[in-house]
Write a structure and sequence with these properties.
The chain is an alpha/beta fold. It is 30% helix and 21% strand.
């Protein structure tokens, strides 16, 4: 896996101290915390979702600009946007580069979703070809990266592969999904984006990726987005080992397909709880010209995290 947690030992400690010393000046991504109520909106231009702890929602089609403004009265501050894929279900009349820029200016974070080819053993008509799984995964990543760039989503944003439920017990099917997913992640990294995987806890998709987590040759997704509609706002689940996708590499869809009304606007949504942190190596530095001491500190941080 190309994106990892901080390494242990003195180097880790040194990196933490250096990063802490200049974080307020250098880091463009900041945490949004508190799921109990809405955070004060502020402009954001970094990777999506970046570093974020709190509530998000996804809906089939991107809401209008007016609806997004009305929903600033909600406790949600992140939105799932369906940026592409051959199995994407809704037209996206509102999803443009200008719309993305407007919502970012209001402080919204995104978790981009891509609904590509589905498992060979699923009921979808557009499915992965087991003989071409790796090539198809790379092609999906190429398309996703292009669409993310067209929307103005910053480098190091996480694009989540939506892999809907499929049954266990079919080795050819499971192998094809893992080859597709691994190629997807590898290729997204080459484009400068991070990868995510959406799966249901009842799907073989979760069990397959858990089993392959440390398998040689498999490139696991950077973020796990899992569905368990039990209404509990957490990122832990008995089916996910505590050592996997940590720290802060998970989000959970905890409630599906319901209506909520905020600011007088009703939208059909799924509700999500995110607890994610952009890895240090992917954070964006902002160095103020004319302050050499800042550049010196940042150079020390950069050396420490290599």
């Amino acid at each position: 896996m190309t994106t990892t947690c901080a390494r242990p030992g003195p180097l880790r400690a040194a990196r933490r101290m250096l990063t802490a010393a200049v974080a307020g000046v250098l880091l463009a991504t900041t945490a949004v915390t508190g799921a109990a109520g809405p955070a004060r909106a502020a402009g954001y231009s970094g990777p999506h979702p970046g570093t974020f702890t709190g509530l998000g929602f996804d809906t089939c089609a991107a809401p209008s600009d007016a609806a997004m403004t009305a929903w600033l009265k909600s406790p949600y501050r992140a939105l799932g946007i369906y940026i592409g894929g051959v199995n994407r279900g809704c037209r996206q009349a509102n999803l443009t580069r200008d719309w993305v820029a407007s919502q970012q200016a209001r402080g919204w974070r995104f978790f981009p979703l891509y609904v590509g080819l589905q498992a060979p053993c699923s009921s979808y008509s557009r499915r992965i070809d087991p003989a071409q799984a790796g090539a198809q995964g790379r092609a999906a990543a190429d398309d996703a990266a292009t669409r993310a760039g067209e929307l103005g989503l910053a480098a190091h944003s996480t694009i989540i592969l939506d892999m809907e439920r499929y049954p266990a017990g079919n080795a050819v099917c499971s192998t094809a999904v893992l080859e597709f997913s691994s190629a997807w992640t590898t290729r997204l990294h080459e484009h400068g984006y991070l990868s995510g995987l959406y799966t249901d806890v009842a799907s073989a998709g979760l069990a397959d990726h858990v089993a392959a987590y440390s398998r040689p040759g498999h490139v696991r997704p950077d973020l796990l987005d899992f569905a368990n509609w039990d209404g509990v706002r957490t990122t832990t689940d008995p089916k996910i080992p505590s050592s996997h996708w940590v720290p802060k590499r998970r989000m959970k869809q905890y409630q599906g397909d319901h209506h909520e009304t905020w600011g007088g606007v009703k939208i059909n949504i799924d509700s999500n709880y995110l607890d994610v942190e952009l890895p240090v190596r992917h954070r964006t530095a902002r160095v103020t010209p004319g302050r050499p001491w800042v550049r010196v500190l940042w150079s020390q941080v950069a050396r420490a995290i290599r």
